[in-house]
From TrEMBL, chain A:
The lineage of its organism: Bacteria, Pseudomonadati, Bacteroidota, Flavobacteriia, Flavobacteriales. The keyword Nucleus does not apply. This is DUF3341 domain-containing protein. InterPro entries: ActD. It holds the Pfam family ActD. The keyword GTP-binding does not apply. It comes from the Bacteria. The chain crosses the membrane at residues 53-76, 96-120. Keywords: Membrane, Transmembrane, Transmembrane helix.
UniProtKB/TrEMBL annotation, chain B:
This is Quinol:cytochrome C oxidoreductase. The chain crosses the membrane at residues 12-28, 144-166, 187-210, 230-251, 279-297, 309-332, 352-372, 392-410, 417-434, 449-474. Residues 45-76 are annotated as: Disordered. The keyword Disulfide bond does not apply. Keywords: Membrane, Transmembrane, Transmembrane helix. Residues 53-76 have a biased composition (Basic and acidic residues).
């Protein structure tokens, strides 16, 4: 079997969503979809496994909370205790309300930044990386669905032309 | 079309009857005279820990006595100042008198009493004053229990009404399939507001003493309240309440009428009317809600104030209102109704429950931390009372309103499971009842609080009435607002 793929272009996200459902119903294998913006519900329509990034985010948040607690304990209680507003810093728990904003911010900071970095790593993205999208129009206003060719090529092209595509072309991938 | 099942109707009536019995019992058993209080306290002090407690309080009183005169007035004593021998801040005053009282009976800790007061006569006077103080707190208790529950259920329907108005004003596409549920929940606003208004009238008439500033004898001795009488006076208080409640009920009735008229309309005239009315209502609501929270809740502590109190109260009943919408939706769904409501709608409601719970915590903590950090006596007294005398409800409320909702509802998939949403909803509703309990009780019943027959009875009565009114309204109209211009989008809403 050749590694031929079909590139199907759409110019509307609703048409794309319907096309994805039809394609899956016809048992064609969608390799990848390139869109100019995130399309809501596309991952579910494509049948992708649910993302686990929320779990990592939660864990990173816990790390941030722990770091903030340890940090504030060291800075404000162990290393340089001060008497601020008549509240001497002798114990962490007694001064805890004052540290809550820091604990909260660090939780959010760790969760957000580490989640973004995790996402980049999982998506194999780094600075100066060459763009992988096969058609520059997907950065403007077009949606591109890449489908693996199997069986009768002409029949598949005919099928995709009926799904509301603005362009269907067969590409030989190396 | 939903029909109010006779089983649910029976449950509602049983709740109301049991509630009336509970409330009646608590009114009946409330002490009538100082002698009753003396007997109750004597019985209490014979229970194990009484002595140790009293001794401990005695020490506290000794420490605090010197600074006690700073506070010119016990802000939550009702008429305790008739026989004033020692004017003290409430906690100090209460503690000193408990010690004195105990010594008077048992001579066991006389040393402490003498340290706190010079001579037996003073101790005796303080003892009498304390008994009277406790008597007033005990007499307040059933009223306060009814007031907290009446206010809580009325505000739930007001929160649902505000949520409904936001959906209209924002032209939200996901929610129109839930409009009839929201209209059902907000229908309780009419009886609920009338009951709360009658309770406020009863206060102004002097039938109960939840609001100390309504008592001329208290005001006569209190400079701070005297300075506020231009605002805190009976007639103006009731006029404000009537305007607020009248405005809310007017919007509720008007939007419900338009919503029903839209079902049979040929154009979107009624929808547009509701859009405009909702925008106007939200402006009216956020102003009146804020003033309402000062009037009906904050003024039970007339010396204390907090500038974000209105938002804090709003967050509390807003999340309760959304929770009730979610729970009633799930109930109707379990009966096979609301066929267009899918898990995405439930997911969105659960997100609101989660989000507003965090918002509530944010406001609760903002209020707490600023007061805690500044540590100004007239402000911090609010939290000292709650942490010392209401430790369990005060911190338990944070667990129920923040820790448990955030842990239960954090997971995306959990927000779609009915039983999880219902479980989280029950926790949130209990937690916010305790929140209102903590707002009203410390100033009205002090350390005499207890969740007993009166409190549970009041909850049962208003829950029964709430179920009866809400489900009666739900049965009156089709559960789908079928001609709403956004209904198609709402039916196909998916996330």
């Amino acid at each position: 079997m050749s590694n031929k793929v079909i590139h199907v272009l759409y110019n509307d996200d609703d048409i794309l969503m319907d096309a994805v459902r039809q394609t899956r119903a016809a048992h064609h294998h969608i390799e990848e979809i390139y869109t100019p913006f995130p399309v809501h519900g596309l991952d579910k329509a494509m049948g992708l496994a649910p993302t686990r990034i929320a779990i990592t985010s939660f864990l990173y948040g816990l790390v941030g909370l722990s770091v903030a607690t340890a940090m504030m304990n060291y800075i404000m209680i162990q290393d340089w205790p001060q008497d601020i507003g008549g509240k001497p810093s002798f114990s962490y728990i007694q001064n805890m309300p004052a540290f809550v904003p820091v604990m909260f911010e660090m939780t959010v900071f760790f969760a957000a930044h580490l989640m973004v970095i995790t996402f980049y790593m999982r998506s194999k993205l780094w600075p100066f990386k060459e763009a992988e999208n096969p058609d520059v129009r997907t950065t403007d206003d077009h949606f591109l669905m890449e489908v693996a060719v199997h069986g009768d090529e002409d029949q598949m092209v005919a099928f995709f032309e009926k799904t509301g595509a603005v362009e269907v072309k067969v590409i030989d991938k190396h | 079309m939903y029909t109010f099942s006779s089983r649910l109707k029976t449950i509602a009536f049983v709740l109301m009857i049991l509630g009336i019995l509970g409330v009646g019992y608590s009114f009946f058993t409330a002490p009538k005279t100082v002698e009753d209080v003396e007997r109750i306290l004597a019985a209490d002090s014979h229970h194990g820990g009484g002595h140790a407690d009293a001794a401990h309080h005695g020490d506290a009183a000794h420490d605090a006595h010197a600074s006690a005169t700073e506070e010119t007035h016990s802000h939550d004593a009702v008429k305790a100042h008739d026989t004033t021998a020692v004017t003290a801040h409430d906690s100090v005053h209460g503690a000193a008198a408990v010690a004195a009282h105990d010594d008077h009976n048992h001579d066991a800790h006389a040393k402490d009493a003498h340290a706190a007061h010079e001579g037996h006569d003073d101790a005796h006077a303080a003892h009498q004053e304390h008994l009277e103080h406790v008597l007033h707190q005990q007499q307040n208790k059933p009223w306060a229990a009814v007031y907290v529950a009446a206010l809580f259920f009325m505000l739930i329907s007001l929160g649902a009404l505000a949520f409904y108005a936001i959906q209209y004003a924002a032209q939200a596409g996901w929610s129109p399939v839930l409009f009839r549920v929201m209209e059902g929940v907000s229908s309780y606003l009419i009886p609920g507001a009338i009951i709360v208004f009658l309770l406020l009238v009863a206060g102004v008439m002097g039938w109960h003493h939840l609001f100390v500033w309504m008592d001329p004898e208290v005001v006569a001795k209190d400079h701070l309240i005297q300075a506020k009488t231009g605002y805190l006076n009976g007639p103006f208080f009731l006029i404000r309440a009537a305007i607020f409640m009248g405005g809310w009920i007017f919007y509720r009735q008007y939007s419900r009428k338009n919503s029903l008229a839209q079902d049979d309309a040929t154009d979107n005239r009624f929808y547009k009317k509701n859009f405009k009315a909702s925008a106007a209502f939200l402006v009216f609501f956020i102003i009146t809600e804020s003033i309402m929270s000062w009037d009906w809740i904050m003024s039970v502590d007339p010396h204390w104030y907090s500038t974000l109190f209105g938002w804090y109260v709003f967050a509390s009943f807003f999340v309760s209102g959304i929770t009730v919408i979610a729970m009633i939706t799930l109930y109707l769904k379990s009966l096979g109704l609301l066929e267009y409501v899918n898990t995405s709608h439930i997911h969105d409601l659960a997100k609101f429950m989660f989000g507003i719970s965090v918002f509530w915590t944010y406001l609760w903590f903002s209020q707490f931390m600023l007061i805690w950090y500044a540590d100004i006596p007239e402000e911090i007294v609010y939290f000292i009372t709650r942490i010392e005398k209401y430790n369990l409800p005060f911190f338990g409320m944070v667990v129920m309103n923040f820790v448990l909702p955030i842990l239960i509802l954090l997971n995306t998939d959990f927000k779609r499971l009915s039983w999880i949403v219902v479980m989280a909803g029950i926790i949130i509703l209990c937690g916010h009842y305790v929140d209102f309990f903590n707002m009203i009780m410390p100033a009205t019943v002090g350390d005499q609080w207890f969740i007993g027959a009166g409190e549970i009875g009041a909850i049962m009565f208003f829950l029964g009435l709430f179920i009866f009114v809400v489900f009666t309204t739900l049965a009156k109209a089709p559960l789908l607002a079928k001609r709403n211009p956004l209904i198609e989008e709402s039916k196909h809403f998916h996330y």
